[in-house]
Amino acid sequence: MVRPTYFDVEYSINPWMNPKKPTFTELAVTQWEWLRDLFVDLGHRVELLDPRPGLPDMVFAANGATVVDGRVLVARFRNWQRAAEAQAYLDWFPAHGYPEVRQAQWVNEGEGDYLVAGERILAGTGFRTAPNAHQESQDYFGRPVVGLTLVDPRYYHLDTALAVLDADTVMFYPAAFSPESLELLDELYPDAIHATDADAAEFGLNAVSDGKHVVLPQSATGLIGRLRERGFEPIGVDMAELLKAGGSVKCCTLELRA
Ligand code: ARG
């Protein structure tokens, strides 16, 4: 995770970002600290990467890389405003016991668009990660990569439209996907939880699950109920300040898969 020390909305690279709207960095830090402490309480070890000045979106650690079986594929950002974030990950991983680190050749925004679901990797494209990046990731990780096309600019990363709950269960927002991708999702996950427009707009799908506890924005009340019905333990958190930049729980969390 990356503390939002320099968090701000200074530019707009997704429909949620309005640089004219005031942001409160201290509030973002408080919300982020709550999330970090919650992960620790749930028994996770949280590693911190130092924020760098001039990179106001750096709190969204999920975008920095993808880590599978201890192998690290560092992002190549779509927008120049975030491009320099990649160097922080290229520096951090080799210094913290990850010898296999490479920067992606194709535009690839890390776990924003790559979600590990059991043996497979679900991969988003349409707005950020390039379609060619999917083949590169499949070759690098040696896992089947399933491409999914996003069509609604509000849900520009896969992790804003779909969350992996356990190896065989996902929840997603159907309207965010192309008809072909939706058909594929229905085939792969006939029991998926479908999010309403309202829950999707609260970034309810930007969630982190350990297979039991599902941490998600507290305002996604419909999904919280659905998750409970399905035997998960949803835990709502307030990430309203970070949502001003188009991010929430999952965006702030890069999972280090050994
Ligand atoms: N402002 C950031 C951007 O548009 C938000 C990134 C959110 N991260 C995510 N994993 N969806 O790039």
TrEMBL record:
One of its GO terms (molecular function) is arginine deiminase activity. GO terms for biological process: L-arginine deiminase pathway. It comes from the Bacteria. It holds the Pfam family DDAH_eukar. Gene3D superfamilies: L-arginine/glycine Amidinotransferase, Chain A. SUPFAM superfamilies: Pentein. This is Arginine deiminase-related protein.
